[in-house]
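Here is one chain, start to finish.
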Amino acid sequence: YDNTDSPYSHAPLFQIRQPSASMEHLLASIHANHTTPRPHFLYASSHRITMDNLHNSHSQSHSQHGQNHEWGASPKSSTQPQPKDTQYHLHSASGLVDETLARSYHALHNIYSVGLRLSTIYGPWGDPRDDIYSLAEHAVSTWHNTTDPQLLFDSPDNYLYVQDAVDSIIAAMQYRQEHDIPALFDIVSPQTFSLSTASNIMNQYKLTNTANDATTIDRKLKRSKYIQNENVNHNNNPNNEPLLLANTQNTQQYLNWTSQTSFHEGIMKLLAWHLDKAHPYGPPLQSHQTDDDASSFSETGNDFLSRHNAPLCAPDDKLCLQTTHVFPCASECAPASSSVCNPSAFDTVRDIVVDVTDGCDIAVLSQSLGQDVTDIARPMEFIEETTTAGLLPCNVFFVPKESQIVKTVISMVPPAAFQKIGIEGELLDITAPTEEQMDQLNGRLVHKGWILVWMDNAMTPLSHADSNLLKLSPGRFLHPNVKYAMYLEPYFASSPNIEDITFLVSEMSRKKSSNSHNKKLTWRDDTKSRRATLLTAQLETSTDPSHHTSLYDATKLMTKDMGGDPNKKEKGPSPTRQQRMFYERIISVVNKADLRSTFEPVRRYEIKNYNYIKSGWLLHDMTLNKARHLRCEWYEEHSRWESNLDQLTFAHIMASGELERKFVLDEPDDNVLAAMPKETDAHEWHELLYEGEAAEYEREHYKRKSLEDDVENHEELEDTLEDGEKDSTVRFCARVMSGDVIREERKLWTHIQNSRNKQKKAKK
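Its structure:
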């Protein structure tokens, strides 16, 4: 947190004292450890030390000819040190202090150490304060045109791809110098580039449609933009102590390590990562409206890599994928053009369901898979014409193809009815229909108001990803005309009728009202225009609103709500238990205030009672890309844990999103919010961030001023906030309705419907 009132916020030497204190604590702990052998101590230093030695040697030669330069200034710069140069020298000085401490502890206590003088590291998950990170982000935001950002700093630097840096660390961990003397190694790439060269490479990759190797791109760039590294062996050890000095020859000889990723290849991978960061779930689906971020889509990272004939990761190669999650190909979260996806049990019926939902406004989905189904316990109302509310629902139920219910339903259909779908009744053996006839009947038979869709090989339990696919990521199963999707769990007590569905759809949005202080609508908050991307019911945790329900107790209530035994003790570390304990750990770590500034606003990660849901039914908005983004975020997090409680995952998604929103929108801190009365249902609308808001906050928080357009964008945002335009926009939310609010809203909705019906009768 940038605390401008603190005396330490702008103290340059604090950046040296803090890491050096940590370094000495580590060395002291190794000295206090009397076990043998002692731990292998490896630390990261800075290649800037080598560069500074090289620069100083050039400066001395220039001064002998009457040319003297100030500290931190290059021969072609002014005599005043630039801020970026000062930052680099502070980093170099910090690394030099660490090396001095390592050598001192070896001399005093015979502690062996290996130091790596790392170059400037770039690649996925980089530091947002780095200029090359800002360049890549700028390139993605202007993907369809060539831009030449005005760089405030363009000095040459040695860039090392992050995977090469990791490989060097692994190699150094296996190195042991004879006589246990400390060692230093330069970890550098073969060439040094400027930022303008990086910008040119990015523009070349953006606009070309075929593979470009490094040689082809080099011809298009000014070769004077980069210089070859010199194999320098500077003697910074005047006492000739037994120290292996840092140079590239020693690195290759003793560590058997060299940089494997060229700068051009690294830039390509960096751009691909930023493309996926901007749109982690690919382009919006055909049915989506152009909302907050759907219109700015360029291409996916894999599409970009494929366009340049770069190798892609296999879906099961976790080392290559690193943290990237692989979705089922049938999921709306996997880009349609992506080859990095997993096959699904639903692949064979996806097109059937799309055809079944053609012409429907809302799709009601349910499933009973992984077991033999004999009948459907909850009948639905089958409607063939659009209702007065303008909704035409389609009820689709998924069952195994080999289950008893399929045979029973086929046997109940009169032969004359088969002629409507092109099957001659006398040619159909209802006791043993052929595979072709089964395919023709799939999605064409209605039983108890449900359209039956049967799946192959679904008698055995589905994978965790498949079992939650319909519930959390149904977009790719539905026709683009479908506006809403409602999912019903098999354990849900009753089936909703058309009035219930119409009422819930009406609760998906609320307009801002000037009459927000209506005494009859005391529970309503009408101060903002809101639109729900998802609607569900709140889990009833306690009759006392002030009582906070712990994650442990909430997990039991969720299990009970699903029909399970909350008191059953599972043997071993179950996924649900591990997930709950991890979320509890987040609370203890994130909310720790020991090292937090007293000037910093108090913003905690809290899973509150209104974050707990009953997911027996869910209502999704299928027209907004923001709604898909929320579903995919929920689906991804839940798939990683493979637990049975998607409600627990949802609570975490809401809590982490609320914490991020507090920082981005600069909301009042938690102490102020706690004192505010919660007399309305405003807390039941969990506001979601626009993608532009999060990106703008990142720019301001890290104060990246290397691109002038960042400053201009920030000024434009301030103008927008001053004009009050942000308050007049519709906020996208995830709505979790409490039981009391559902009852009050239903009474109001019923009253309005009755009044309208009376008016229609009076007109007739």
